[in-house]
Amino acid sequence: MTTPIERARTTRPVTWLTIGGVLVLPAVIGGVLVAALNSPTERLDNMSAAIVNLDEGVEIDGQLAPLGRQLAAGLVEGSDDVDSNIDWVVSNESDATDGVSDGTYQAVVTIPEGFSEAAMSSADALQGEGDPDVATIDVSTADDARIFDSAIMQQVSSIAADTMGATLSEATLENVFVSFGDMGSQLGEAADGATELADGASSAEDGAAELGDGAGELGDGIVQLGDGIGQLADGASSAEDGALELAGGTAALADGAYALSDGAVQLSGGATQLAGGLRQVDDGLGGLSEGAGQVADGVSAFDDGLNGTDDQPGLASGATSLADAIAQLTEAVQGSGDQPGLADGAAQVADGVGALDDGASELADGAGQVADGVHGLGNGAAELSDGATRLADGATGLSGGASQLADGVTQLGTGASELSGG
């Protein structure tokens, strides 16, 4: 007799249907899970992911290399090696955060700042410039999308590796080619520099020789300059002596001119007095002429008195006329109160002649002093001329020495320039 299987705490028996359900249910659940987790990337057609690019690129040889932008473009366009079942959207930080929160985006890929610089540091390290840095990206997903993390990371890693590999290879090769080109240019410049160095050494040797010649000529010019300065000092001393004698002659000339002026003044006074005496003599001569006429008339009357005439014979009448004529003659000679006589005019003439003689004597003295001053002036002018001649000779010697000194300095500068250029 078969005993039925009973459930715990119940008297109802366990049926075969219950046993079959217990055996089949785990297999069904396992099959569902296996089916759900088998090749999840093939069923991501409706999944969206945001790309946030914070990189600003790096400048290489004057050109901008935006590796972050190129990586974002590679993710959007997809890769030939990896099937892209994700809808990539280029976004910003705010939109990506909100999209992950509300379920618009299941994942966010953030390319940080300095990504390009860190990625290109390996190429710089190959050229011996600095140490390489690690270029990283950040991937964040929604809380309910953890099952897709591995699939997203696989696709992002594959596309990022392909994009960065191509970009870095291109940049590295360009840098290598540029380095080889720069090396060739530098070798050519080094050869040119060696040639210029040899030419500079030859020029330096020539410049040193010219520098020695210029130094010799400079020494000669300095000697001649010293001689010219000595002659210039002698000429200046002679010029000073001549100037002193010229000053003495000028003073003597001034004294003679003053004496000449005084004599001329006295001569002018004597001439004035002489003119007054001459006028008085002329007046006396006029009176004398008039008296002589009267004397002639008296003589004629005396003759008539002596000889007698028909109208008036007799000596008495003639004697009276003669007495009158003599009286007029005496008056003409001695003069009267209103009209000076001949004697006064003669005295004034004598006085004028004396004053004229005194003025002529002083004039002769002044002329002598003028002659002495002119003689001293001539001597001073002669000595001044000698001093000026010596001064001119000294200036000529100084000019010659300065010219040779300038030539020596020029050759010295040329030699120094060639020596510096070499």
From TrEMBL:
Gene Ontology cellular-component annotations: membrane
MF (Gene Ontology): ABC-type transporter activity
Keywords: Membrane, Transmembrane, Transmembrane helix
Superkingdom of the organism of origin: Bacteria
Record field: transmembrane: 14-37
Residue ranges annotated for the ABC-2 type transporter transmembrane domain, each copy included: 22-159
Subcellular location: Membrane
Membrane topology: Multi-pass membrane protein
Gene3D superfamilies referenced in this protein's UniProt entry, alphabetically: abc type-2 transporter like domain
Protein name, entry field: YhgE/Pip family protein
Organism of provenance: Candidatus Microbacterium stercoravium
